[in-house]
Amino acid sequence: MKYLDEFSDPDLAKKLLDQIHEVTTQSWAMMEVCGGQTHSIIRHGIDQLLPSGVELIHGPGCPVCVTPLEIIDKALEIAKRPEVIFCSFGDMLRVPGSSEDLFQIKSEGGDVRVVYSPLDALNLARENPDRQVVFFGIGFETTAPANAMTVYQAQRLGVKNFSLLVSHVLVPPAIAAIMESPACRVQAFLAAGHVCSVMGTQEYPPLADKYGVPIVVTGFEPLDILEGIRRTVIQLEEGRHELENAYPRAVRDEGNVAAMTMLRDVFEVTDRSWRGIGMIPQSGWQLSEKYAAFDAEHRFEVTDIHTVASPLCRSGAVLQGLIKPHECAAFGKECTPRKPLGATMVSSEGACAAYYTYRRLELVDAHE
Amino acid sequence: MCLAVPGLVVSLEERDGTQMADVDFGGVRKDVCLEYIPDVQVGEYVVVHVGFAIQKLDEQSAKDTLANFERMGVLEEEFGDGFALAAKQAGVEHEAATEGASR
Known about the structure:
The complex is a heterodimer.
Chain A: H1 10-23, E1 28-34, H2 35-43, H3 46-49, E2 54-61, H4 63-66, H5 69-80, E3 84-88, H6 102-107, E4 112-114, H7 118-127, E5 132-139, H8 144-157, E6 162-169, H9 171-180, E7 188-192, H10 193-199, H11 204-211, E8 215-218, H12 222-238, E9 243-245, H13 257-266, E10 267-274, E11 278-287, H14 296-300, H15 315-319, H16 351-367
Parallel strand pairs in A: 1-2, 1-7, 3-4, 3-5, 5-6, 7-8, 8-9
Antiparallel strand pairs in A: 6-11, 10-11
Chain B: E1 5-15, E2 18-25, E3 28-33, E4 45-49, E5 52-57, H1 59-72, H2 74-79, H3 82-90
Antiparallel strand pairs in B: 1-2, 1-4, 2-3, 4-5
């Protein structure tokens, strides 16, 4: 157990692991939905500390990774325009479009800015009334309330030179899509903690019922993940499939009611394409009719987009948990963080980036 | 991206009709919108995602998590200079980051 001393409380980590080993009598495959959890797992070697048959399948919960290539290309086109200040979270800068990324657009003279909060972008719009300020509004349910509030404020304050390029995605439809796939091996889910901080847990019991899978709301720190796995294995061994909240310190069953009220006002559910996966019905949010004037896709009418995806990149299979990152032939060869073929290699939540950062050397050793 | 970091509410301020706070994340101070956790008081801890408080958190849990995140380098990722991080990853000189990075 080479990594145990890296846990904040090695004794508790050992206790949780001992319990997992004690209750496990057979092989189980569970998916951690969230890419932040994937990084925590690989970094701390949690998967290597589990009983040999207990497998963690890495899920699609990296919003940067699943943002469709077409939207990335649109973002790049908009960011090139001289009248535009294009604002984004830093995680988006190196996500490859068909031929470029935002980082390159910036070095070629585009006014691309990294902001901490979408409200910073709204402030930029107020300070620069002669410019068009666009914020790249991607993310899961955790991030959507921030973008919703920003659009609400833009309307309330009459900031007409602000707009949002929206590509929001939702966790429950992704869980359903994974379970409906014929290749599905997933027997349980660790649900993403902060998504549930916002949305609560009510959406998950019907999924647990319908697909017969335990769903355990899990935090992001190594001990949280061990606790989520422990509860999941116990449910699997006992033949139960229920929703459990293993992250109660930050997740209330009812979620954040004020945030959900704002989400319902600003956004409406829509079909969304997921990069590498394809269209998932009713799996995202777009601006509702009332706020359509703030939609950057309408404001800039970028139409002439011809996406070119890398023929080598298998990030879609990685995002669906069908292969592990190093099982892609391009991993660490044609595809590295320096020259990525897919977003999963550069996002701080991408599974390929996690394997490259924390496992590269041992994977190469094993191969040789 | 779904990372949320606990922080201590240092002071409250209403700005343009919006409830904002100065929040301390283990030494890094940020403006945070409190509209989704309206009953929070100075001295309490909140879980913050991209400048918005989304839940309250007890003090001990908040301190433990902050210590953990600091050890794991998460705070640098969340509050560091996005262009510098991107430049490092791309293996290029950090030239583009000299202006406009408000992160």
